Amino acid sequence: MAEEFKYSCNTASETLEWIHAIINFIAPYRYFLDAHVVNFFKDRLWEPVDKEWMDCLRKEPVGNLLWIPSGVVQDHWPGSLKEFILTLRSLSLSREQADFQEFSGMHIASLSNVLAQGMNHKKKHEVEALSALVSLVAKQVGARTVVDVGAGQGYLAQVLAFDYQLSVIAIDACSHHGKITDARAERIRKHYAAKMRKNCSEQREFSVPKTVTCRVLSSDTLRALSNSPVENDHAGNQHLSQKCSVSQPARLAEDILPSRSYSDSTLVIAGLHACGDLSVTMLRTFLECDKAKAVISVGCCYNLLSEEAIDIADSCCGFPVSQGVKSAGVMLGKSARDLACQSADRWRGLDEHAGLHNFELHAFRAAFQIVLFRHYPNILLESPTIGRQGKALRRQQNQRILESNLHHGGPSESGEPRKSVSFLHEYSSIQSSKSCKSRAVDGYSLFVKFCESGLGRLHLPHLEDTAYSAVWRESESYFELIGPYWSLRAALGPVMETLILLDRLLLLQEYDSDLEASLLPIFNPVLSPRNMAIIAKKIRK
């Protein structure tokens, strides 16, 4: 049985030991990492999996399957299966939200209604925690300026400016986001000014975030940013000139700050879910820029990381970034990066109906892949996307269920399972009250609707009923394998994310001994699955 051994990452050598343990363990399970679940039936993806595991899990309740990615096993399972799941758990970073009461000088305050306007529950939770952490770190390193990278609509930037009185530069690739940030900040400024006048308080100047519109998703555009002057438009908003020459990524902060006439020449780089390579770019900029004294990066969208240049010594790809992982020659691939985006905490919070919907949706999509393969093989060369087929609505419903369970601790006020808005709910809800024959008919009719909807989205003509029925007959008996396979594969997700994050941490640890770097889970993982912050500070000599 796997030991409950907790790896540590306090030093570069400890981090590298953890990374090598992950690499060595996942090597025999490459068939999970490289798999694309839409090809489940076409490529018979269950065949490489231990038959004893599949025979055991195909009989398990859906609820037990949903807990596998969280490392929960059942006593009656085969020893090798329990060993696999428990080892994965021991190799994964702990996702439980940190107790901020242990941090001296840090206080998470609830946002006022005016600052929280427009935020959903998840965003409010994230901004409250991250803004308090950024403020604490800025105070520790003696910085009064924060560069918010990938600022979006400026929620974090505005809280840092208005609540914590920090000078904030909000950078985002979308000019529309910049305009929204400016307009929202002006409304907030007017609100506070009016409140002070009403209370006869002493008038004071508010620190309003300054917006910069620039795409910094690649090293090329970030280098181009360095020689691009900041200009005012007619509305007084500040943007970057489009005519740029090439320089070094570290000049991101070197050039922006002087152009804004800040007396404080030190800064903190922060990012809330900076997408893909952008989170890595933040870390590299922090290392190479003297004025950057700290960085707080919460990454996301690992599926968008670049990996193409692993064999080039000076490459600026998104993975791997540390010399230790580069030396190991590790490549993830698109499917493994997708897997790193899975959320074990969210899946275990779902009820059995929602879990069943998930498995049914995968089964229908995998069977539809055979339809395409047989009748429209050329379309598969284009990696077709047929949309989420009700998944987006179901995800919103599931999020409401999870948030409600956080407050109420149960499935619903009535005690009944909550219903999904997916059309697959019709299939699952009628199973217990119908015969096997009528259940098959109901499932088949929904499968036909799924296929016709998918073909319509791909602008392809519908097929004769015999085309659908042939695929259904071949696939239906294997539907029960989807849940076990998906759950076992998803159990690798937390480990893949751990590998990506440890690679980033090791990049910082390799750079300089006069640097403190750590990983900290700062959000509730059920509300915000990408809850790990990389925090690094340059130690004053």
Q: How would you characterize the overall build of this protein?
A:
The protein is an alpha/beta fold and 541 residues long. It has helices spanning 12-26, 30-33, 51-57, 62-66, 79-90, 113-116, 121-141, 155-162, 175-198, 219-225, 251-259, 277-288, 323-328, 334-339, 344-348, 352-375, 377-380, 391-408, 425-429, 436-457, 465-475, 482-490, 493-511; strands spanning 145-149, 167-172, 210-213, 230-232, 238-240, 267-275, 292-300, 515-521, 532-538. The strands form 2 sheets. The chain has a 7-stranded mixed beta sheet, sandwiched between helices. A two-stranded antiparallel sheet has the order 4-5. The chain starts with 11 loop residues before the first helix and ends with a strand. Residues 122-307 form the Methyltransferase domain. InterPro entries: Methyltranfer_dom (IPR025714), METTL25 (IPR052220), SAM-dependent_MTases_sf (IPR029063). This is Methyltransferase domain-containing protein. Pfam families: Methyltransf_32 (PF13679).
Summarize the structure.
The chain has 541 residues and is an alpha/beta fold. The chain has 23 helices and nine strands.
